[in-house]
Amino acid sequence: xxxxxxxxxxxxxxxxxxxxxxxxFVQEQNVPPELEMDDKDAKCLHxxxxxxxxxxxxxxxxLPDGHIGRMAVLRxxxxxxxxxxxxxxxxxxxxxxxxxxxxxxxxxxxADFYLAHGFKSEGxxxxxxxxxxxxxxxxx
Length: 140
What we know:
The protein is α+β, with helices and mostly antiparallel strands. The chain has a domain at 4-98: Gcn5-related N-acetyltransferase (GNAT) (Aminopeptidase, 3-Layer(aba) Sandwich). The chain contains 4 helices and 7 strands, in the order βααβββαβαββ. The strands form 2 sheets. Strands 1-2-3-4 form a 4-stranded antiparallel beta sheet, with helices on both faces.
């Protein structure tokens, strides 16, 4: 699958990122919408992946402190490398900003994905929005 990733602030990227996040987190995973959209969006660098036809199919964000969050890929595009491309792009952006490490809270079912991309599990499982998560760190 041909994937293009674009980066920008929330004002630029929200029209494409927000529907993906609502579909994946709110509709599929039953995360309350008020927990999904937060005031951190305005401070983040957002990445959106587009398929060959220009349709937005995945998203993620990089917080100013080097955390990656809100990684989501539409069900129809899962398993095609979109998530990996988004993650690599966000890691490259973090490295360019001078971060020594990147931290994220991975849903436990996705931990193997992050391990395969060089992240290390840290700490115990915790719950966020009723979903089990584990903190993971990538060291440059």
